# Entry
Amino acid sequence: MPQRACERQPPHQAAQPLAMGNSYLLAYNAALAAGWGYVLFLTYKTVLQEHGWTEEVFKAVEVPLKLSQTAALLEVVHAATGLVKSPVGITAMQVASRIWCLWGVVVPCASAVLPRGLLSPGQQAALGLPGWANINFISLMTAWGCSEVIRYGFFALKEALGRPPYFATWLRYTGFIVLYPLGVSSELTMAWLALPSIAQRGLFSTSLPNAWNFGFSYYVACILVMLTYIPGLPQLYGYMLTQRRKVLGGGGSAKAAKAKAA
# Structure
């Protein structure tokens, strides 16, 4: 006799999709933790061992960076389908900002943004800062790489163990305090450095008159996107601080973190 729709599925039938979802999320998070770890490794191998700088770093990390960052689009799908319990809007906003920074700024304007940083060499010398103390592509890779290794590593451990170790939970809900501002300032610096090149080349832009009677200025669009960071960062930062209080509440004890991480 066919089973009625209102009847509860047998436990083994109900558990099978859940187990498949957990296995998929474990593989996804572990792969991206490894991918971002490789990006970090290549970044500092190029800087410390090969004495390369921003342009050499980009050449070294280009392929794993593009793969790892683009794969983050699946996170929006995960949130939208309920595979993970994450706010779709905040997830989409965070992923979109990084996709735009990579594919809309760094890749098409590499020659404009990679050789430079927020501070010029003269400004660094005047301030007595070493060469590495700048906001540039290397700081972007540091912020993105560290935050994603921590985040994806945390979720991979959670899928594998059910309850991640305390150190992973603490890093997940503490590292962002420094890494988010570093990442945002690096993203905005990349966009700021790219603006003159975007305007000069008319990148991704359409001017009137044309057959479609439609005009679009990517230069203006980039400025508008940069302005969205003003309300966007406090929202993301506030959300993570709220999550931190929930998970590491009561003084951030290991006991509280372990209980909340389950």
